[in-house]
Amino acid sequence: MRVKCIVSYDGSQFSGYQVQPNKRTVQGEIEAALKKLHKGQAIKVHASGRTDAGVHAVGQVLHFDTHLTIPEEKWPYALNSLLPDDVVLLEASYVLADFHARFHAIAKEYRYRISRQKIVDVFKRNYSYHYPYKLDLSAIREACKHLCGTHDFTSFCVAKTEVEDKVRTIYSIELLEEDSELIFCFKGSGFLYNMVRILVGTLLDVGQGEISPDQIPAILEGKNRNLSGKTVPGHGLYLWKVYYDN
Question: Which residues fall within 8 angstroms of residue 7, CB to CB, at 6 or more apart?
């Protein structure tokens, strides 16, 4: 039987999601817990996508195959008892055998948190990017309009990105203000390696007046990583939600 799961994790102490030799990863911890639950049988998990070192997830989706007949509502209790405190299985459901967490995803939502306090909050240092500088939010919102839609985002991904097709669709970009935090919300068909972090870095440059909102179309058309802003740190990034047809 195939199980679809929604998982949250604190990425602070992980070298990313994907299994890596001699490094602590989210996938490694989940597969280790499943192996214990299956009495030593190795169980492979497939996620909607990878997250980098330090990046968090509120609603990561994964699937795996099992011969166990645990009721859906009991899976979180069974697995969470074996998982470390920084990974939590929120819910699980049995799905059709052809379901795939990655290939069947139709959209993803990422959020990036900016702390705008003058002095860094020591308790938020792993969960938001401290950026205490003045920002023109109206200019940022204007720039966001140019980024929404279907574009080639070569200028907004790591130069060594191996994917040939860099065309993606951003459905919406929202800016939320919560107390001293500014939250960027990106919803799109998919995102390239470091794309969200480079988008945020570029939008912060817009807010600082270093890039004009009207320059965004030219940056997109230039298809050159050197034209866009810096890559902001991973610890402010959250994989918020993964969307499927159903």
Answer: 26, 30, 57, 60, 61, 62, 87, 88, 89, 90
